[in-house]
TrEMBL record:
Enzyme type, top EC level: translocase
Residues of the full protein shown: 1 to 230 of 378
UniProtKB keywords: ATP-binding, Nucleotide-binding, Transport
Family according to the record: Belongs to the ABC transporter superfamily.
Highest rank taxon of the organism: Bacteria
GO MF assignments: ABC-type quaternary ammonium compound transporting activity; ATP binding; ATP hydrolysis activity
Domain ABC transporter intervals: 4-230
Protein source organism: Streptomyces xiamenensis
Record's protein name: ABC-type quaternary amine transporter
Entry's EC annotation: 7.6.2.9
Length: 230
């Protein structure tokens, strides 16, 4: 069963820009798909149509077989993890409370949410005993991105959207984060859309790679096939 389906999706912005043009894409449950291509080819727009930060001009986006057009965007966003290049953490909340925010909003008890948050911090490579009580400005860039990933996983969302999550850290740290993310994904098996303009990153992380041209997917295949293509 596909978890995410783009069915002839087109997005035209009010100024006339056709950012996404008749896009069709199917992502299986538990699959990590990287969206790769040059700047401006529609990757971010595609991703934002999954959590209704953007709405398609035509076509449908289906989540687990259901057209998300009928879903309340706020609830939808709580069910879909979202990690961007510079994650916005709450500056006056500790790392632990930042991570536990959404479950608490969803009505989970604070103690249980914090216990789970500590497990997730461990999973993303941050010792909760050391980092749980720190504030965001006491972390390195790489550590903040790790907290962003832990926080996105806290509501146990079926789908995770990642938009250049490791794009703003230096190359050594990035490789570190990529490796940790692969280990994490092997454990949690989320359905992931991962935007990057770095083909190496796309190949390294993706079960399949969607190679974007102007507003379209030009190739959708495994890393080996994409690399082998002329
Ligand atoms: P990518 O993520 O591949 O860099 P985007 O989805 O951000 O591409 O952008 C695709 C196209 O849509 C670009 O031409 C961009 O300038 C345009 N675009 C993106 N957001 C908007 C917007 N809010 N209004 C108008 N045009 C936009
Ligand atoms: P990472 O590989 O996670 O990005 P860095 O190499 O940037 O980590 O940082 C190395 C160490 O320096 C980390 O253990 C981190 O705790 C510490 N550190 C970085 N920035 C700060 C800061 N602003 N305040 C306190 N400690 C910091």
């Amino acid at each position: 069963m596909n978890m995410l389906l783009f069915d002839h999706v087109t997005k035209r912005y009010p100024d006339g820009t056709r950012a996404v043009d008749d896009l069709c894409l199917e992502v299986a449950e538990g699959e990590l798909v990287t969206l790769v291509g040059p700047s401006g080819c529609g990757k971010t727009t595609t991703m934002k149509m999954v959590n209704r930060l953007e709405v398609p001009t035509s076509g449908r986006v289906l989540l687990n077989g259901e057209d998300i057009a009928g879903h309340d965007p706020v609830r939808l966003r709580r069910r879909i993890g979202y990690v961007i290049q510079q994650v916005g953490l709450f500056p006056h909340k500790t790392v632990l409370d930042n991570t536990a925010t959404v479950p608490v909003l969803l009505g989970e008890r604070r103690t249980a949410a914090r216990r789970r948050a500590a497990e997730l911090l461990e999973l993303v490579g941050l010792d909760p005993a050391v980092y749980g009580g720190r504030y965001p400005d006491q972390l390195s860039g790489g550590q903040r991105q790790r907290v962003g990933v832990a926080r996105a996983l806290a509501a146990d969302p079926p789908v995770l959207l990642m938009d250049e999550p490791f794009g703003a850290v230096d190359p050594v740290v990035r490789e570190h984060l990529q490796n940790e993310f692969l280990r994490l994904q092997a454990e949690v098996r989320k359905t992931v859309l991962f935007v990057t303009h770095d083909i190496e990153e796309a190949v390294r992380l993706g079960d399949r790679i969607a190679v974007f041209g102007q507003g379209r997917v030009e190739q959708f295949d495994t890393p080996a096939t994409v690399l082998g293509a002329p």
